[in-house]
User: Fold these one by one.
Assistant:
Number 1:
Amino acid sequence: EAGVAQSPRYKIIEKRQSVAFWCNPISGHATLYWYQQILGQGPKLLIQFQNNGVVDDSQLPKDRFSAERLKGVDSTLKIQPAKLEDSAVYLCASSLDPGLAVHFFGPGTRLLVL
Amino acid sequence: AQTVTQSQPEMSVQEAETVTLSCTYDTSESDYYLFWYKQPPSRQMILVIRQEAYKQQNATENRFSVNFQKAAKSFSLKISDSQLGDAAMYFCAYRSARGFKTIFGAGTRLFVKA
């Protein structure tokens, strides 16, 4: 089966610019997660969707970050405007069954904000 | 709030030998899941092993096994017969059975020497 797809793989922008990331989860996976992984740290959950509804976005900086999952399939994460501290790898993951909680991760998008 | 602590930023092991990675967590709940994920260099994160807290038996997956000590809130990963392909970042993770959020530790970088 195809894995979790993410694009772009790399992005370099200047501070105050906008950027968007795209994720396509494994077919049939109802749960989709966006994580931020800063260098040297573990992944931190930004937002979790169950189908197209938000389950948890308590750690999403809502003044600059937004995410949507239209039709309960693929998802986009946007940063507007970007700050230097947003430099990180943004990981998308999906789960078939939220009860099992096993994550299938995409390759990530590495963002550098200059 | 739940926390996950990996006290070893780096570990190294000789090929074919055994290494143990440590993880402790803090929770007031009795039912939860614990995970070890592997993140190879420039490759996506994958699940290594999963443990359900209500199960007393330690999980095993081929050369990977855990030592789950519920009272001590300890969840270590043992890798036997280490191989060069085991070199990666290893993340310990926790999720409450009642909640939705998975919490990751900061990771341990494992080096395997030929």
Number 2:
Amino acid sequence: LAKTTQPISMDSYEGQEVNITCSHNNIATNDYITWYQQFPSQGPRFIIQGYKTKVTNEVASLFIPADRKSSTLSLPRVSLSDTAVYYCLVVLQAGTALIFGKGTTLSVSS
Amino acid sequence: NAGVTQTPKFRVLKTGQSMTLLCAQDMNHEYMYWYRQDPGMGLRLIHYSVGEGTTAKGEVPDGYNVSRLKKQNFLLGLESAAPSQTSVYFCASSTIRDSRNQPQHFGDGTRLSIL
């Protein structure tokens, strides 16, 4: 199974842009990159998913370079409510399970 | 729309007791999963199921059993609870589209303490 590596923690201030990078060196051709967000005492929540180049939704942007060995989750102008743990996963083909790592704990201060 | 519902939300057990955690989803999803989350460890997959009547082991299956008798339900059993199984347990479900796993939907968790 493809394994991901991301920073354990990051700190930011309100209004800043936050970029969290994830490494997935042995990603396979059919794999997709997916990010989840988890608030304390809640289950993880899907944020964004992509295969290559750039994907943007109302919450975040996901940048994937051509070699797809890494990806960057970008959160524009974070607020205190963005304080959470962010997980990067490589989603395999149907019929296989996902492996969550330890995630990145993002702390946003005022 | 309930999504994924976990029962119970909290439970305290004594070492050696048994119990079953219930997960129910109303989205007609094929896949269901059980995870445990411990401080500093992230989410670890215990067992999962790709369809009714099927189950498979995840990263940390020892000490747990599961059953998927109905498509909408996924049960996690502890036959003889141990303090090391004190954790927060999350259930999730997902579907398939274009031969690809779709994002998982999670329940709110079950907080289990084993004394």
